Amino acid sequence: MADYMNDMQKEEQVKEQGEYTPSVATEFLRETIKQKPVNKRKLVRRTVTTVIMAVVFGMVACLTFLILQPVINSWLNPEPKAEQIAFPEEKEEVQMDEFYLDDNQMKEEEIEEIREITVNDSTEKVQALLENIILDVHDYENMYVALNDLAREAEKAVVTVTCVTQDVDWFQNTFENEKQSSGVILAENGLAYLVAVKDTGLSEAEIIRVTFCDGTEANGELLGVDKTTGIAVISIPFTNILISTKEIIKIANLGTSNGVGLRGTPVIALGSPAGIIGSVSYGMITSDGVRLDLMDADYKLLTTDIYGASSASGILVSLKGYVIGIIDNSYNSAETKNIISAYGISELKKVIEKLSNGESRAHFGINGTDVPVAIQKEMNVPKGAFVTKVEMNSPAMSGGIQTGDIIVSVNDISINSYKDFLAVVHDALPDTILSVRVCRQAAEGYAEIDLEITLDEVK
User: Fold this and answer.
1) Are 119 and 260 in contact (CB under 8 A)?
2) Using N-to-C axis directions, what is the helix angle for 418-427 and 345-356, rounded to 10°?
3) Beta-strand relationship, 456-457 and 266-272
4) Which long-range contacts (CB under 8 A, 24 or more apart) does 238-241 make?
5) β-pair partners for 325
6) Which residues in 308-384 belong to E strands, given as ranges?
7) What topology does CATH give the domain 362-457?
8) Alpha-carbon distances of 147 from 210, 278, 283, 321, rounded to whole Å
9) Most CB contacts within 10 A, which of 58, 285, 366, 423?
């Protein structure tokens, strides 16, 4: 170290004298480090690569988030699912007192007496019973007050459905077209109320507005339309309905249109039987035995003595408050075009269930009826579903079904009536293959033929 310091002093002296020659040690200390020149091409290339990688990473991350976000949300916060709609099975027969007798207000002896009169159809006994009944104007008034109270209670399940479409006139002014009909709240699936209503252009409607009994409105959506009957089902989400309205409205009690005892019973027509929204009419059922000859269907038509509009809509309600029919005057004759008629509710329940649950209906393609018992015995005709008509280009026609065939079994299930056959078809799904056995008239009696029918979807 001392030698190094001596050398440095000597260099300083020489430098002052002008004869400076750097030593090796000094030269080493005076070296400078220069940076390597920047390659601009490589820098640009790396920058672009980094940007592209960042963009790709961002897109992958975004796509992954979009895909996984609903899955994670549904896992953490599962959305409630709509419940399946299923109406309870009906009794085969209807007792007459279900509609107009109140066991709590009548003595057992009176009930038995009326039942006996009903069974024996004794005019003398009816007259004797009526002679003991004395009514004045106050009784008449009280009767209508009671009917009005019953109607008001049942109207809590009645709604007005408005189909709104927009159009443009010649002057390019936008205006709205509205068509209205009366419907009924038949069920709820945990997320929404379900309304059955006559179709008045619901498929083309831009807005479906439902008005409840308290005058409030909510938007609904169409779940489906049965092309055979023209009955539609609309869903109104709970979130669209005011809490105060939920506390007032109710789901209708469904009765039955099967069995005996309907003819001659009093009913109330609600909705718009007179062609006016909110109208009400009283009367009685005049006939319950009319069967509508429709494809893959066996609907009962209830007729009344109530005078109304040919465009009437709404429901028929029994004096027990049960809905027994949905009004539709489409099948009235020219002589009875203003008489209120209705589809029997029992025959509509399966269709409404399918529409409410968003299920596709299977299409077979026949009209049919039962083989009368007398014909079975006298002419040795097998019992089953008698085919009266085969629809053109239907699965039935493609599979070989002919008019006059008698369907005796489907998938090894015995068919004793047209109703049995319809039950199997209604429970089946489109594209199902049915093994159908028919009896076809031959030279000597009836011959059994096995056919395979591939169902398609009702359009």
Assistant:
1) no
2) 10
3) unpaired
4) 238/191, 238/192, 238/193, 241/193, 241/212, 241/216
5) 316, 344
6) 313-318, 322-327, 339-344, 362-363, 366-370
7) Pdz3 Domain (2.30.42)
8) 26, 15, 11, 10
9) 366
Phi-psi region of 264 (alpha: psi -120 to 50; beta: other; left: phi over 0): left
HSE-up of 410 (CA within 13 Å, CB side)? 27
Token output for 207: 């807005």
Report the C-alpha gap between 228 and 364 in whole angstroms. Answer: 13
Whether 241 and 210 have beta carbons less than 8 Å apart is answered as: no
CB neighbour list of residue 108: distance below 8 Å, 6 or more residues apart? none
Question: In terms of DSSP H, where are the helices of 331-459?
Answer: 345-356, 373-379, 395-399, 418-427
Q: How far is residue 342's CA from residue 196's CA, in Å, rounded to a whole number?
A: 13
Structure tokens at 26: 């000094």
**CATH assignment of 81-357?**
2.40.10.120
Per-residue pLDDT of the chain (459 residues; tens, 9 = 90+): 555 555 555 555 555 555 555 555 555 455 555 566 656 677 677 777 887 887 887 888 787 777 777 666 666 656 677 788 888 877 654 444 444 444 444 445 554 554 554 545 556 666 666 677 777 888 888 888 999 999 999 999 999 999 988 777 676 677 678 899 999 999 999 999 999 999 988 888 899 999 999 999 999 999 999 988 999 999 999 999 999 999 999 999 999 988 667 888 999 999 999 999 999 999 999 998 888 888 998 899 999 999 999 999 999 999 999 999 999 999 998 888 899 999 999 989 989 999 999 888 899 999 999 988 888 888 888 899 999 999 999 999 999 999 999 999 999 999 999 999 999 999 899 999 999 999 998 888 889 999 999 999 887
**Token reading at 147:** 């009917």
Domain borders along the chain are 21-79, 81-357, 362-457
Q: Retrieve residue 245's tokens.
A: 């309205």
Residue partners of 137: CB distance under 8 A and separation at least 6 = none
Q: Give the C-alpha distances (Å, rounded to integers) separating 297 from 119, 255, 262, 343, 443.
A: 32, 20, 21, 12, 31
DSSP secondary structure code for residue 3 in this structure? H
Whole-structure pTM over 0.70, yes or no?
yes
For residue 351, give the nearest of 299, 388, 395, 386 by alpha carbon: 299
Of 287, 341, 279, the C-alpha closest to 310 is 341
* Contact between residue 440 and residue 432 where contact means Cβ atoms under 8 Å apart: no
Return the H-helix or E-strand segment holding 181. Answer: strand 174-188
